[in-house]
Design goal:
Low-confidence stretches: none
Shape: globular
Strand content: 5-15%
Keywords: Membrane, Transferase, Transmembrane, Transmembrane helix
Membrane topology: Multi-pass membrane protein
Structural class: alpha/beta
Strand order of the largest sheet: 4-3-5-6
Radius of gyration: 26 Å
Number of domains: 3
Domain Bacterial sugar transferase: 271-454
Distance between the termini: 32 Å
Largest sheet: 4 strands, parallel
Transmembrane segments: 17-36, 42-67, 79-97, 109-128, 276-297
Organism: Roseateles asaccharophilus
Amino acid sequence: MVRIFNHYLHRRTLQQIFFDVGLIILALLGVVISQGEQAGQIIPFAASHGLSLAGCMFVINSATGFYQHVHNRSLTESCARGLLALLIALPLAYGIFSLLPADSGYRELLTFAAMGAVAAVLAHRVYAAHSSIQSQAKTKVLIFGSGEAAKTVGSTLKAADPHVHILGYFAGPNETQPEVARTELIEPQGSLTETALKLGVDEIVVALSERRGGSMPLRQLLDCKLYGIKVVDIATHFEKTLAQIKISHVNAGWLVFGDGFNQGVVRTAVKRISDVLFSSLILLLTLPIMLLTAVAVKLESRGPVFYRQERVGLNGRQFKVIKFRSMRTDAEKDGKPRWASKNDDRVTRVGRFIRRVRIDELPQLFNVLKGEMSLVGPRPERQFFVDELVTKIPYYAVRHSVKPGVTGWAQVRYEYGSTVEDSIEKLQYDLYYVKNHTLFLDLLILLETVAVVLTGKGAR
């Protein structure tokens, strides 16, 4: 994992991005070299248009989910995503290079080279999504602990990152009843430091079930770090592996004294400016869709087109969120608030469609322009549910330290939920966002939101 602007990215993701950019540059470079004496004249055009195309391909591949690490995606689905990306990227490449001077003899060559590079990039993305990972170097991880916490670390690592090789579990001094299989326990070869060096460990995850009474050999862990072995605690492990802050394995001290949770005047100003610019642009582009949706909602059932409801925003202040109405007008006729469920029978036919593709959320852009919401942030919740969840879930109120968002890290990472357990899972993503939010992470979330809309992931 590599940390960029406070957000953890897989090294393989960066390798994929650099490979795609390199492939486009090499294709255009081949055209430049073939022109001989005219090469110097072509280079400025090839460089500027090539970088523009590479940036567009990054957006397209991100939006279609090719940079996400999904292990259960079928070949058919990957091919469908690749075809969709190709239908967007080929005309885009043609359009970018058609802007070259018309009287130049190299415009056609550069255009065909760019289109060929785009096709090659997408073919490689489909191939890479299903190629064998056995030949790739894996990070060797030793889990320090053998209790329930260590077992959880092992299971999440196996599920989340196929490029990790878990060497086994090294039991702590006071752990006499291991929760992991005996065959997975590492036989000590001297001290923890000596064992780690002999096994060639790259990283140690400290997941002891008992840390009192000398259970934490700090000197040995420090020696491991001095020998170049990464040492992380369990909370940091979950943060970088799952992009979550697991509330079951975190304490207030870790949140207070660790890095992150930086709001700042500059960050707030930049976020506000980007909110206004992007919201205005999206409203302009989606205006025809919003008009058609308003007509469809009105034709299907009696009642208002828009749905307004009190929600809790920044620092606990209430505001009225606005959305397209997707439920019957008598959805809560008994006056009792109810969670919206995945296949809620109160949802109308039009409502089911607009919820699936997130069109019902578009009017919230007006809340963004008013300053009540941001484009990216935790989902705003009703006061009734907030009061309930604050008493049941530790750190729930932390999510109100930033503006709520139209989309967010929890929305793109976790399917729609309607229980307290679901709220806990989503809170763990929200806490990660509040701790690490930057403009870079906001842009990634917006790109993943496009992928969610295109694939119907997490449909409600």
